[in-house]
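To whoever is on call:

I kicked off a structure prediction for a single chain this morning and the downstream step that reads the tokens threw a length-mismatch warning. I double-checked the sequence; it's 255 residues and nothing unusual in it as far as I can see. Pasting both halves so you can look.
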Amino acid sequence: MIKLRILGCSGGIGGNFRTTSILLDNDVLIDAGTGVGDLSVTELCMIDHVFVTHSHLDHISSIPFMVDSVGFMRDKPLTIYATAETLEILKQHIFNWKIWPDFSAIPDPRQPYMRYQVVELGQAVNLNGRKITALPAHHVVPAVGYQIDSGTASLVFSGDTTTNDAFWQVVNRIAHLRYLIIETAFPNAERGLAEVSRHLCPSMLAEELLKLKSKPKIYITHLKPGDVDLTMREIGECVQGFKPIMLLNGQIFEF
């Protein structure tokens, strides 16, 4: 059985809001936003794998701090999984010695604190019986979602994405889909902004969910802190056939 804990699921910060980060068992992260900062040093040391959906800061901000904080305490590198395009962005714009040190080369290139691993769409990474597969996403930078398969059930995390037929084609082929975590970043009044930034608003989410052929439990992530109540109310009014629930920090899924 897989245990998955939500460390952060907001589209912003302030108060108790934390940006996207999901802890799988005790050794895998799906994205590494500000929620990772609530983990203890001991918990940070136990993380061996980070699967990144895309390169935006709210999804990767804790990786540099985590490597710097506990890299010297670990006996093997932290592995960062992402598409080749996303890894290249991280190399050029984060771990470039100007924004942050290149921890894939220190303290020694042969024994670094961090290493990169390319994942491709449809490729399943098997970690002790847990299969993590990259799914199509459509965002303003190269992006993916992830399917997490325990062997008996699956959870799908959309990552940041706008309307995306390719995503639903893959999701509809997943047997035993139990949970779907999908973003809705803006209220309906900001549909134009959602479209240009390649996110979803409630009316767009409703249109997308018409493409879903199974009946998983649906959770909403990436809500903007100032519009949480409004956006969830509009989701309730727009979406037919499902009852999406707001994802919460600290929420635990076991499957």
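Update from on-call: the warning came from a stale cache, not from the record. Cleared it. Sanity check on the structure: The chain is about 25% helix and 25% strand.
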